[in-house]
Write a structure and sequence with these properties.
The protein has helices at about 85-110, 120-125, 145-155, 215-230, 240-245, and strands spanning about 50-55, 55-60, 135, 140-145, 185, 210, 250-255, 260-265, 275-285, 290-295, 305-310, 315-320. Mean pLDDT is about 75; it is low at about 1-60 and about 115-140. The protein starts with about 45 loop residues before the first strand and ends with a strand. The longest helix is centred in the first third of the chain and has 26 residues, at about 85-110. The strands form 4 sheets. A 6-stranded antiparallel sheet has the order 7-12-8-9-10-11. By secondary structure, it is an alpha+beta fold. It is elongated and about 120 Å long. Strand 1 and strand 2 form a beta hairpin.
C-alpha cells in the first residue's frame, strides 16, 4: 500500500525574499552563495531535491543566503611534503660545511705528514702540537708517542733483540737483590757457535748478559750464571732459546731439571702471545709442578716466583 505521508509539498514561495516556506529541508540541499561573482560555476547551481514516492515526485527548490561557502584559492602547485631552507640559507650552510671539511682535512694532513729535522713547516706548524717532542742529548727531537710505542713493543714479555741494542724510552737501570745495578753488568750480542765455549765458567768481571734489562731473558741469563757460573752465549726472543741452545752445544729437553732455563712457547701457560717466556727452575715440587723465578710477569725488572708445569710447548735448556 502506498503511503502519502512522505510527500512534502511546497506551499508557497515568497517572491520578495526568495526563501522557501517548506517546513522541512533536505540535508544535502543546504548550499548557499554570496554572489555569482565569487562562486564557481558548479557552485552556482540551485540545489534541487525531489521527494518522491511510488505515485510521483514534487521538486523542491531552495536557496539559502545564510550559509555561504568559504572558498580558499589554490596555487596550483603540489606539496613536496618536506620543508626546505630558503635558497640563500642553503648556500650559507653548504659553504660552512665545505669550510669545516677543509679544516678537518688540513688537520689530518698536519698530523700525518713527516717534518724535516723534527720541525714542522710554517703552514703545518699551526697544527703541530709543541708538547709532542722532547730534546735529546744529540740535539735531535724525538716524539714521545714514538718512544712510548717503542718501549711498549720492546718491553712486552719475552721480546728481546739483544743486550747491545739501546731503545729510546726503555729503562735499562734495574736494581738486583744484592743492590747491584743492571748497568754495572756488561751487555753484548750473541757469540757465534764456532767461538762459543761449551765449557768453562766466567767470573763476574767477565760476565756479559745478552739481553735487555727488565726482560725475562735478562733475568734468566743472569740467574743461570749466578747458579752455575755459565754464561748464555746467545740473544733473541724467549721462545728461540729452545732451538738456539743446541746450536751452541747446550741441551734442550722436555724433562725438568733443577736450575735449568725453562722455555715456554708463545701462549703456553700464559706466556707472551708471540714471544714466549723464560725463567729459572728453582725447585721441583712433590706433585711435579715447578717453582720458577722470572722477571716481567708482574712487571719489568720485578722478580716473582710462579708455578709452571712440564708439558706441550715447554722445554728445559742447560749447559752439559
Amino acid at each position: 500500500m502506498l503511503s502519502k505521508e512522505r510527500v512534502h509539498p511546497i506551499s508557497s514561495i515568497d517572491s520578495d525574499t526568495h526563501t522557501s516556506s517548506a517546513p522541512e529541508t533536505d540535508h544535502q540541499d543546504n548550499l548557499s552563495a554570496q554572489s555569482p561573482e565569487h562562486v564557481e560555476p558548479a557552485s552556482m547551481a540551485v540545489a534541487t531535491t525531489t521527494h518522491a514516492d511510488q505515485q510521483g515526485s514534487v521538486p523542491a527548490t531552495k536557496l539559502s543566503a545564510q550559509q555561504a561557502p568559504i572558498l580558499i584559492p589554490s596555487t596550483g602547485k603540489k606539496s613536496t611534503g618536506t620543508m626546505r631552507a630558503p635558497k640563500g640559507r642553503r648556500l650559507v650552510i653548504n659553504i660552512g660545511a665545505a669550510f669545516m671539511l677543509l679544516v678537518v682535512i688540513i688537520g689530518v694532513l698536519a698530523a700525518v705528514l713527516p717534518t724535516q729535522n723534527g720541525q714542522a713547516n710554517v703552514f703545518l706548524g699551526f697544527f703541530q702540537p709543541k708538547s709532542n717532542s722532547v730534546s735529546m742529548h744529540n740535539n735531535q727531537s724525538a716524539l714521545i708517542a714514538a718512544q712510548a710505542a717503542t718501549a711498549t713493543a720492546v718491553m712486552q714479555d719475552g721480546y728481546d733483540a739483544g743486550g747491545n741494542v739501546v731503545y729510546d724510552g726503555v729503562n735499562r737501570d734495574y736494581t738486583l737483590n744484592n743492590g747491584q745495578s743492571t748497568l754495572d753488568i756488561a751487555s753484548g750480542g750473541a757469540q757465534s757457535p764456532a767461538t762459543a765455549s761449551a765449557g768453562g765458567q766466567v767470573s763476574a768481571a767477565n760476565l756479559v748478559i745478552r739481553a735487555t734489562p727488565g726482560q725475562c731473558t735478562w733475568w734468566a741469563q743472569y740467574r743461570y750464571w749466578q747458579l752455575t757460573g755459565y754464561e748464555v752465549p746467545w740473544a733473541g726472543n724467549a721462545a728461540t732459546y729452545a732451538y738456539q741452545a743446541p746450536a751452541y752445544g747446550w741441551i734442550n729437553t722436555t724433562v725438568p731439571v733443577v736450575h735449568s732455563i725453562i722455555v715456554l712457547q708463545p701462549g703456553v701457560q700464559h706466556a707472551g702471545a708471540s714471544t714466549g717466556h723464560v725463567g729459572i727452575v728453582e725447585s721441583i715440587n712433590p706433585d711435579g709442578s715447578l717453582n720458577v723465578s722470572s722477571w716481567n710477569v708482574v712487571g719489568p725488572g720485578i722478580l716473582s716466583y710462579n708455578t709452571y708445569y712440564a708439558g706441550p710447548g715447554v722445554s728445559f735448556v742447560y749447559h752439559p
